[in-house]
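Input chain follows. Return structure tokens only.
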Amino acid sequence: IVGLYLSPPLNAACFAVDEKPQIQALNRTAPILPMLPTTPQRWSHDYARNGTLGLFAALNLATGHVISSLRPNHTSVEFIKFLNKINRNVPADLQVHLVLDNLSTHKTPAVHKWLLRHPRFQLHFTPTYGSWMNLVERWFSALTTKKLQRSSHTSVKELASDITNWINNWNEAPKPFVWHKTADEILDRLARYCTQLNPS
């Protein structure tokens, strides 16, 4: 995966793909108060839940452009629909490399059959407990801190509209996230950490 980030293949589109399930449409019981020169931003501790929504996202590693799909739930059928959307959005002459989590949803027989019918797709799974290596997680963090944490929604439809507008604004001037660490640097740091935990 690090090799894919640092030296992507020619004639290929590389995407970091993941899902953000159970995004809650929360409505605060009082309006969020803005930050002032001497006062931090404030919001009430209680809220009303108005449903949930799932977001599939594919971050183009080279351009930062995001292909997204909002879904009511997270199943392999929904994942296949999202793969079809990626397939439609990538020129037919390019290979497609996807970095994604090693979830059971991504490895069902239906997904396997879809991949056999679409040989230009190649999946690269992050290791167990290594989802932090997926760069789309950084994009989800931006969505959460810059939009979702500061928003109130009275319905799932309102939440979907808000997320869609934020993604459209992002895609007007997308910025790729740049990976800096080599695989050797990551492994060296991990070895030092393991040594600190267990010196023997």
